[in-house]
Amino acid sequence: MSVLLRTEGVHKSYGGVQALDGCTVEIGEGQVAGLIGPNGSGKTTLFNVITGYAKADVGEVYLGDRRITNIAPDKVFALGIGRTFQLTRIFASLTVMENMLVASKHGRASARKRAMEQLEFVGIAGHHAVPAGTLSYGQRKLLELAYVLVAEPAIVLLDEPAGGVNLTLVNHIADRIRELNAAGVTFLIVEHNMEFVMGLCDQVTVLDSGTVVAAGPPAIVRTDRRVLDAYLGEDPDAEDLEAAEEALEPRAGEDA
Amino acid sequence: MTRAQGLRAAGVVAVLAAAVVFPQVFTNPAVTNYGVFALIFVAVASAWNTFSGFSGYISLGHAVFFGSGAYAVGVAARDWHVGGVGVFGLMPLGAVVGALIAVPFGLVALRVRRHTFIVITIAVFFIFQLMAFNFSFTGGSSGLDAPFLSWNLQTFNNPFYYAALACAAGATALAWVIRRSRFGLQLRAIRDDEDRARGLGVHAMRVKLSAFVLSAAITGLVGGLWFYYIAQVEPSTGFDPLFDLFVVLMAFLGGLGTVAGPVLGALIIEPGQLYLTTVFTNAYLSEILLGVLFLAVVLFMPRGIIPTGAEWITKLRTRGRPAVAPGSGTTAAAAPAAAEEAKT
């Protein structure tokens, strides 16, 4: 499997805070990759550096063989990297359909047709004519996913897609990701919902203090001592470890 | 074409027809004078709204383009010895000068956002006013006089009226076209969340600058017409600090970011201001009253007449019905209707 997205030794600091400290991550083409870590570990900063919203102090970002370090967000998007945000960022005064058309590269008629297909795919086509600001939080998550997809990106970066939405919608989102992945879209997902990540991802990378502390298949990562340390601090007691392992374990029989 | 669209088109044709016959029906020059100024400000408010209303970047520096357009036509008429109707032919020069100034102005000012952008536009405005006072080619504090016109006083205003009508109709039509275009959609996306728009492939700087230059060109064009109509320009009138406040008030009153809003606002404010200035011997009283109106609009009708009116109509139409059919994923008439009507 070829590497689609790669960061090499990325450093990023905000004042005295080192958000990323030599972060190296590789995402293979066709993967659903997870990026986990405690709050403040640098996950969203890494997303921002990859998508051009923040400039890396040191280090490189590559899309395939192409160096994309510190290029503008519009150019990153044009190259095939779409992203969503932790707190949904939609165009509230535009209608749902207009939101979809902002990212479209197609002509007017075909853009509308494709946009409607994507809205049907995520399940909010019935709301296409309403102002996006009137959607519920979960519907906004779906809209954000849909309008990123309308430009047919090669890789989609999802920042907490399951955050703040109910279980039914979480499963709905997971199913959509699986279908898209089967159609060839690569995903990198930041998520605190371990059931969601462990049940969906082929590979999981764990960040702590801006550094990758573990990477590999979910089954291996969830038992990695460094991961447990990252979540619980060093020298956790047996009860804490058991609780953490349980949290990282997907529940049997559940989809996500 | 839907019934609503048909009614809207019929309304536009009726308003245009009324505007065309207006000077033939109301032949009193004092009345057509109101018409000329009202149409000049319809054009300027529409042009301003095409940039500021759609993008959310509130410019208080459009007087730079208006004054520069006026001076460009004035200087050209003086130095090239152009007179009579020939001066109307110089109006495009005002547009070119406005656009040329807007490029460096925009490249600097559009790097910042919100309040900082407003402050920069004000600063640039005062730089231009100072230049007009101090350069010799602008005539200094005396300004410039337009070539004398020996036209019949009874119909003197009519050529200016029709020129202003053409500018107003053109600016409004352009705003309508942009509002419905991909370019307009990108501008409105920038207004809602510029960083997000960039992340969806919108070349924000290019889009903002294009709108700024276009808006400046129309404002410069109309500035040239205004100069020829009032027959003179001075630094304090060409670069008037109250100009942008009036234009902003027009757009806010009618409906910021809508096509019809600035037109309605200009048609209310400009004749109103002229009337108040005529009625009250103290010129400042009209400005105080307009200031009060501005506060009232911001406090009680912040979205303006058109969006608020559309909302009331929608509420009346859909009284007792839910805005969105619960659980169905389909929508009732309310929300889409409000969204569509707010666009006009």
Write out key terms for the chains shown.
heterodimer, A: 256 residues, alpha/beta, Rossmann fold, B: 344 residues, mainly alpha, 2 domains, 2 strands, globular, disordered C terminus
Q: Which structural class is indicated by helix and strand composition of chain A?
A: alpha/beta
What is the strand arrangement across the widest sheet of chain B? Answer: 1-2
Helix fraction of chain B, binned, reads over 70%
Determine the fraction of residues in helical runs of chain A and give it as a percent range: 25-40%
CATH fold call of the largest domain in chain B: ABC transporter involved in vitamin B12 uptake, BtuC
Query: What is the count of DSSP helices of chain B, taking H or I runs of 4+ residues?
Result: 14
> End-to-end distance of chain A, in Å?
25 Å
Main sheet specs of chain A: 6 strands, mixed
Distance between the termini of chain B: 15 Å
Give the full name of the CATH homologous superfamily of chain A: P-loop containing nucleotide triphosphate hydrolases
- Stated plainly, the CATH topology of chain A is called Rossmann fold
Look at the structure and give the mean pLDDT of chain B.
90
Question: What integer is the average pLDDT of chain A?
Answer: 88
Kindly give the count of domains of chain B: 2
CATH architectural arrangement of the largest domain in chain B: Orthogonal Bundle
How many helix segments of chain A? 10
Sheet with the most strands: spatial strand order of chain A: 6-7-8-3-9-10
Rg from alpha-carbon coordinates of chain A: 18 Å
Helix and strand run of chain A: EEEHEEHEHHHEHEHEEHHH
Any low-confidence stretches of chain B, pLDDT <50, length ≥5?
324-344
Low-confidence stretches of chain A: 251-256
